[in-house]
């Protein structure tokens, strides 16, 4: 069972929502964060508190991606119904967390496959394919954190990720050390392979007042005609 939260649902009610730099609401209808946590893994907030924090930070769309479990799914669906009428889009996901790579699986409704501690390439590819079987999206998270902070050995190269057909690389991660928040190398790689692999920003919020990077630095702006359910 998740532990009690030290925060309340009203902590961000009086905060005027942030407006991201250069945001044009005529050009974009979603301000998205693909990566955050709740107390269903190692986060500090409930699902509802997570959503309220995102609203205060200027987001109107988010995916809950707790580590290696989707025990939150039923509660997410309840909160989702409450906020959809307020124009806030909430989707489910999981951060597939290993000692080689962290992948976000977005828009999936279940995960019942064992997650290996140190997967071989074949296991990673198999997991990616299982996401695509559900119509989901795959993102490689915080490469600089993986390599420079966690010191993961044998992290797949960006070229390998491209070969495996992943959809996005996270180019901003706010819960990394300041020098690793923006991933210039991944940004340039995605620009070089534009149309084949994309880029997303992620807060990776665990505790709203304890970001290693000092705060929120990126918002992903999207224009979707058919919003996901």
From TrEMBL:
Domain Polymerase/histidinol phosphatase N-terminal: 32-100
Matches recorded under Pfam families: PHP
InterPro entries, sorted: PHP_dom, PHP_domain, Pol/His_phosphatase_N, Pol/histidinol_Pase-like
GO molecular function: 5'-3' DNA exonuclease activity; 5'-3' RNA exonuclease activity
Protein's recorded name: Polymerase/histidinol phosphatase N-terminal domain-containing protein
Species assigned in the record: marine sediment metagenome
Organism taxonomic ancestry: unclassified sequences, metagenomes, ecological metagenomes
């Amino acid at each position: 069972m998740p532990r009690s939260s030290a925060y309340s649902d009203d902590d961000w009610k009086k905060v005027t929502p942030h407006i991201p730099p250069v945001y044009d609401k005529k050009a974009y209808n979603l301000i998205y964060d693909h990566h955050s946590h709740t107390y269903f893994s190692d986060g500090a907030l409930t699902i509802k508190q997570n959503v309220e924090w995102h609203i205060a930070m200027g987001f109107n769309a988010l995916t809950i991606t707790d580590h290696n479990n989707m025990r939150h799914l039923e509660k997410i669906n309840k909160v989702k119904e409450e906020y959809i009428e307020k124009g806030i889009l909430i989707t489910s996901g999981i951060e597939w967390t290993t000692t080689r790579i962290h992948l976000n699986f977005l828009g999936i409704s279940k995960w019942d496959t064992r997650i290996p501690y140190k997967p071989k390439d074949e296991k990673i590819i198999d997991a990616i394919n299982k996401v695509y079987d559900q119509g989901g999206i795959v993102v490689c998270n915080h490469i600089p954190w993986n390599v420079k902070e966690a010191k993961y050995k044998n992290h797949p190269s960006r070229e390998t990720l491209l070969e495996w057909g992943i959809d996005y690389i996270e180019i901003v991660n706010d819960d990394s050390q300041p020098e690793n928040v923006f991933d210039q190398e991944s940004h340039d790689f995605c620009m070089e392979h534009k149309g084949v692999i994309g880029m997303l920003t992620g807060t990776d919020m665990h505790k709203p007042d304890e970001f290693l990077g000092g705060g929120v630095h990126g918002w992903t702006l999207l224009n979707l005609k058919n919003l996901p359910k």
